[in-house]
Specification:
The complex is a heterodimer of chains A (about 250) and B (about 100).
Chain A (H helix, E strand, L loop, with lengths): L8 H31 L3 E2 L5 E4 L2 E4 H4 L5 E6 L11 H7 L2 H10 L2 E7 L3 H11 L5 E3 L5 H4 L12 E4 L2 E4 L7 E7 L5 E8 L8 H6 L39
Parallel strand pairs in A: 4-5, 5-6
Antiparallel strand pairs in A: 1-10, 2-3, 4-9, 7-8, 9-10
Chain B lengths: L7 H31 L10 E4 L2 E4 L26 H7 L2 H5 L3
Antiparallel strand pairs in B: 1-2
Classes of the chains: A alpha+beta (about 250), B mainly alpha (about 100).
Chain lengths: ~250, ~100
């Protein structure tokens, strides 16, 4: 790294306080945006989606699992894929820590992929994840929420992230949120794609605090450095903690 | 919970307006992160020594071969029986960023 300005603790604190004011502004702007998000209108979901789950066939309403709010992560794992997408896996590494707490706030979280359930289950075992993950194989769910595309749409202009753009895969990342009312009616409240998912990545939140930051400017694409967590060269001894030089 | 229910077209129009604001906040966040990296640094001259499962380690040792170190100051005082539940909530999200043990 290039040399950096080194100052006294007093000088640092002064600069840090000026920056803190901006951080507080950002936090307040984020809270305002979240409030505006909650004020968005909803759309009633009338289509009867049925999913394959480890507990058998379930409708979208049943996936709420007794809660009134459902977050779905559209995990890129198509019917013909050998393994789940690396970047989705990077995001998914953060899910398990959150699910138990989300349940306390009336939120069920799960992932949905178009691959058959057996393929999902095998990959989930390999990655050691616990969050619920169901298959939309046989329904239009991931197509309707603009994260899955027909073979002849790949390389063409399709709707993704609320605009027409060329996509290079039959699967794209996204997250969708649903609400179920007392009568059992289900509403679509929100979907986010692309960098709209950025806030879900805890490791990025950490990297944004570091001197080198995300350090992705020289890469062919932002997550080019990301691998499945069992494929990093030093993955066998990353978290042994404190001084293991092995 | 009473909420405005609209057609898909109306929803998408409202969602696109909100998306513009989300993109603004994302860019603001990137800008803020760049400003954070531009902050000056302070040299640590004190010799802190920590007790770890692998014995005594200095702050410099804790970097474990890397050049950057993030420390969570976990609220768990000498006479506490358990770590703070708020810190534990936060800590539940750390494992995913570190990778499997």
């Amino acid at each position: 790294m290039q040399s950096h300005r080194i100052v006294s603790a007093d000088e640092w604190t002064k600069a840090r306080k000026a920056f803190l004011a901006k951080e507080k502004e950002f936090t307040q702007a984020r809270d305002r945006l979240s409030a505006e998000r909650r004020a968005l209108p909803w759309v009633k979901v009338d289509k009867a989606y049925v999913f394959d789950t480890p507990q058998g066939k379930k409708t979208l309403a049943e996936l709420f699992d007794g809660r009134s709010q459902l977050i779905v992560y559209h995990f890129m794992l198509g019917p013909g894929w050998e393994e789940g997408c690396q970047s989705c896996s990077y995001l998914a590494d953060h899910f398990d820590g959150a699910t138990i707490h989300l349940a306390q706030r009336d939120v069920t979280f799960l992932a949905v992929s178009r691959a058959p359930l057996a393929k999902i289950e095998a990959f989930k075992r390999r990655m050691g994840w616990k969050f619920p993950w169901v298959s939309s194989s046989g329904n239009d769910f991931n197509f309707d929420f603009h994260v899955s595309f027909k073979e002849d749409e790949v390389g063409k202009n399709v709707e993704y992230n609320y605009e027409r753009q060329e996509i290079d895969s039959d699967e794209m990342p996204g997250a969708s949120v649903f609400y179920k009312d007392e009568t059992g009616a289900v509403f679509h409240t929100y979907s986010a794609y692309a960098r709209g998912l950025d806030i879900l990545v805890g490791a990025y939140n950490f990297l944004d605090l570091t001197p080198k930051g995300r350090d992705e400017d020289q890469l062919p694409w932002t997550m080019a450095w990301v691998r499945h967590h069992d494929k990093y060269e030093d993955s066998k001894h990353t978290s042994t903690c404190c001084g293991s030089e092995a | 919970m009473q909420h405005e229910i609209v057609s898909r077209e109306e929803w998408t129009a409202a969602r696109k307006v909100h998306l513009m604001k989300e993109k603004e906040l994302t860019r603001l966040r990137d800008k803020l992160s760049a400003e954070r990296r531009a902050l000056p640094w302070v040299k640590i001259d004190k010799t802190y020594v920590f007790n770890t499962p692998n014995g005594k380690r200095t702050l410099a040792d804790l970097f474990e071969g890397r050049s950057q170190l993030i420390v969570q100051h976990f609220m768990f005082g000498p006479d506490w029986n358990a770590g703070c539940s708020g810190c534990s909530f936060s800590a539940d999200h750390i494992e995913g960023a570190l990778g499997p043990s």
